[in-house]
Design a protein that fits this description.
5 copies of one chain form a homopentamer. Helices cover 45% and strands 13% of the residues of chain A. Chain A has 14 helices and 10 strands. Chains A and E meet through loops of A and loops of E.
Chain lengths: 305, 305, 305, 305, 305
């Protein structure tokens, strides 16, 4: 087995060979296969933000097949989507690229400060649809943390029984933190730690800013001079916060922005030791040829080119 | 197999042949059989609005048999009703016309801004009664979205195991949206997307107005000049929002109005690519001969006459 | 998706996407990936014939890891083994090559004319070990056919729920047939049909002789002049007997023999439209470099070289 | 069996031999094995306080393996950690040192006066990971006492069925008590009693101050001249409050402070009849050689040196 | 972790950390702890042969406590016994020495040529009694092989879920083999292979004679000149037959004989690479001081003294 992959798998020895196999498939698939890096195309925005906001910029995206095909053509590691989309794409794509069933979702009609995502799919769905992984969102900082951690924790255990990989989108949000706190370096580090402790195999967080949200944390960052000036430094700290780098931590790109900005961000992520990126709107909202070129550039960065 | 039907069925390849068969029966039944269009007679108003409000205009309607017989006589694709009605009609009609068991219902005694429908029947009921499909209402925009999506999601999975078709009435409602928002084009599009993501095979929504409820959505409709001036244009957008037309989306008629208004509305629905209509009060509250003539006209529109 | 693979998968539309995915993986893996042909390394002889008879010719074979590594190095489509061997190899190889858990086995201590294999593993084992498929032996011609068909049938159904591929070794044997009947062309054809009817996705049979076992069958073969003179002709008949070629039928090589004999046999199998070979002793009982060369030649035949 | 251990085990005769065995393992392990004393290394601060605050002082601690190795090297009785950390360390350390799965946790993002910890692991997790015990926090003094006591009580019962030891961190907190009350001698005594009544086998409390929180309690402490002047006296009272010393009560050290202070505190704990200490930050936040020396000194105190 | 132990544990990577922990405990316990060797005291003869035949030679043995205490005093790796005995000894000894619940048993009242042991205990019993392992007898060569392999296979899977070690006593017996065949080298090798394939972690067989039972096997032993002249050579072959030494194979002593004979036999076992011995009657039927001296000598042999 490829040394890089086998080193990564050695961090997950508690899992049965079924889960190890699926983690292997994600690490071995696509152009980054074998590098220990991952680029994933997630498309849950239809549910999370509504269809027009998500797909009007590139109307081909109304069709779930477009996204799975884009992920395959761009030679990514995996594609993530909610139940209905997965039902459309799984019969054709389940063997071609690892699929991640996004099992809870939240819609923007709910404007609560402290939202709780609804489960829209189950472990049984992931099994019948041939998915490699199942994914969940948690919102650290929400007053509903107990309910969310418990519901997701139980699903993760069930997923492990079935040999699935568990992916956690750990997105700080809620009345326990400020708006700036949602991307504060201490909070993102904390969110990575919480997801890791809940048993996640792969953790997705946002790129952190140099803001520090918690007073008590600030003292520590100052006293121990934890380097957080550059994004690369902050990413290094986040990865360290997920068991000293023994959990796969990948980063989202957030709202669409200029390509050069994205590439520079990803150079920093890579420099900081990120395991990869999960890039949704920034890719699927561009016309396909442009999206492919855009993703090609990103894969190149992670290949160290 | 009829090409139109087999094209539609190709969008549902995740399902087992049991579900495919039942979807086929709905698409192949009645006068519209084979056209890819559907007209369904739903009668849950006895529960939803009370018997007198529903049936006094045409007292024959107090008897559930009246409705099933009307649907058969009008040569529609299917008939939907709650448990008790279904228990009355299934022994005679289950073989003659596809039956949809409406499995959750809400009564007007509850005047909550954020209602949650009660499950009044189960998948087991649908099976024992020989139903072809099972139907559920969800209210996107309700603060109880999590409970509703999860309950309905679990029932849909169970229905699929049993080879039933899952129909979702996706009716925006609740304190997260305004009254106008209940039929706003962005919200109806969003509701169709949500139902599709929950795994619905057939989605029923209301005809959308040109109101746009969400600020963030408005920007996108404007920027990308999504055509929403005519009802046909809006319908086209709704259908697109349910997986680029890969889910069957049908439209309700809403409160009774003049016949001509209804026919014009249905011409627009058809022009916009709607898969059909679900017409309750507007048909069963008329005397039978009139209702039959009324439905005959509607079927004619969908036949492209 | 590769056209050859998607044509094959189109024969299995009853299955959920989980099973389709795993069938895809088997058809897409290894050097024959995408050709619609399969060569599989099965190693259950330790259990079936005892360890010395199986592994003394090439003692490296006492270690289950040897076989999985051989299958990977030879770039085959899959590797099959019983539970204990699978427990040894799955943690390292489950992601690298599709694994088939051989779930029932028989030992030669039992010399019954009508043996019944014992279940030595379960569907749960296949899931926790990350297997792609689960395999079973049946003995058409045994007086215990009812018990065997029923037990295997139940396991196949359970396997399909979990998205596994079901492989059936259909080996005529028992007091209902003669010794010559075990490889008679009518009986092998019959065994392929029975396995297909039990719900198998992949069927393994022995290359048939031109003997015809059953009197009634003989009349038909004669009357309709079914061509069975060459092995290629007989193979074509066997494949036809499994739903006109709509089930994957592969052929075993049987006891070790001269290499040239094997190659000639496989040329005939390929000419007759066999989907591939399952080659155990003939490969793993040779020293590794020789085995690799031997398998390379066989893969070449199926590649049409 | 060692007399001291068998005396202690005699207090737990209700439990099945599985639980007795695991309690034995905790009492027999490490340098204090057989003395009836315990020193445990708990590391849940990554979840409870965030990673930087916990591990920046000694960055090796970002890796869960560091802590398990430290506990083994220091020859302690057990190591406690949340699910994710346990998944990292269990495959290597489960046999070497008793592991306690910390099954509920709370993060400092939640600043409620009356927090409720979230369950982040289950009894099934403890079993599959080879843990010896499972641990829970309760907050006596919280308005949510009912929910917490009931949830933890159910898990304790389930743990006992599986032969696990149940450890309860009984930490007074919430709007029913004052800040000073969190360590008041009457409240700590009360918390020990409550944990014992919930079925805990091992109870962890904070060292009590001489403050008395409750008016009614104060009268009694005065009237009966319960000695609470020295920490040793107060510890004696706490131990007495947990069934006259028939439950293992151990004490936490709280926030890091000077070494000499800690040693003096532990001398008092030992003098008062404490069964041991649970020492987290004070050990793992020091460099390893210093931590080992620090723990060596503490073990020496409990050995009566 | 001790290198010898971690090498052995690396062969069992499919198992969860619970099972790994218990295997570790067996390999780390007693005087042979850490050597990779095991001596186990099994006492199921009261059930298997009747009490007087078993215990009259040393009447202290009527009391189950005697045996557990002997195993502890002799510093062995583990003690095995049926349910009732275990219920007597577990409360005191479960923590002191790994216990193996012998879960199926056969009594001599049944004189069938083809006996089937009865299950006298369950996995739940092993859990509640704090056992480290659960043990089963199978009789390869029996006409009831199917029933036995299936029953034991299911219990092994259940044991693994609970983190227990599975020990299989693989004792050839039944009308498919001759009396001499019960200890024939080919049959013992075969029995070790079968137990390994059923998922056993530890396999117990009898020391093989140089008799070869099966005609087909004999040809192979001759052709490949498998060395089987000395017991050491035969043992090496048996160990090889259990996955090239990747499963722990231990040997019973059989009926009581002279001490020197036993020691010589164990020297041969050790020379042949056996992982240890399981010694019942030969130890517990001697007076305790003699038994201890006897076991001390045996442990010395495995220590290489």
């Amino acid at each position: 087995m490829n040394k890089t992959i086998s080193d990564i798998l050695s961090w997950y020895k508690s899992e049965n060979p079924g889960t190890i196999k699926n983690l292997y498939r994600m690490l071995a698939s696509g152009r980054l296969g074998g590098t220990g890096k991952m680029v994933i195309l997630p498309v849950d925005q239809g549910f999370e933000h509504g269809p027009a906001r998500s797909f009007a910029p590139n109307p081909e995206g109304y069709d779930p097949v477009y996204h799975a095909a884009l992920a395959v053509e761009a030679d990514l590691n995996a594609h993530a989507a909610p139940l209905g989309s997965m039902e459309v794409v799984a019969p054709e794509f389940a063997g071609q690229i690892p699929l991640i069933l996004k099992a809870n979702n939240h819609d923007v009609l709910d404007k609560s400060t402290d939202p709780v995502p609804a489960f829209t799919a189950s472990v049984e769905d992931a099994v019948r649809l041939g998915c490699t992984a199942i994914g969940f969102t948690i919102y650290p900082g929400s007053i509903h943390f107990k309910q969310m951690y418990e519901e997701v924790g139980e699903m993760i255990l069930e997923a492990k029984r079935e040999g699935l990989v568990a992916v956690v989108w750990s997105y700080p949000r809620g009345s326990n933190i400020s708006k700036a706190g949602e991307t504060a370096v201490d909070i993102i580090a904390y969110s990575a730690q919480i997801a890791a402790q809940l048993g996640a195999h792969i953790i997705k967080v946002k790129p952190p800013t140099d803001h520090i949200e918690l007073e008590e944390a600030k003292k520590v960052y100052d006293k121990y001079r934890i380097p957080i000036n550059t994004l690369a430094e902050r990413v290094r700290h986040i990865v360290q916060s997920a068991f000293a780098g023994k959990r796969i931590v990948i980063f989202s790109g957030g709202a669409a922005k200029g390509k050069e900005e994205v590439f520079e961000e990803i150079r920093q992520l890579n420099a900081g030791g990120a395991f990869g990126s999960i890039i949704g709107r920034n890719s699927f909202q561009r016309p396909k040829p442009e999206a492919l070129k855009f993703l090609d550039e990103i894969l190149g960065i992670y290949e160290g080119k």
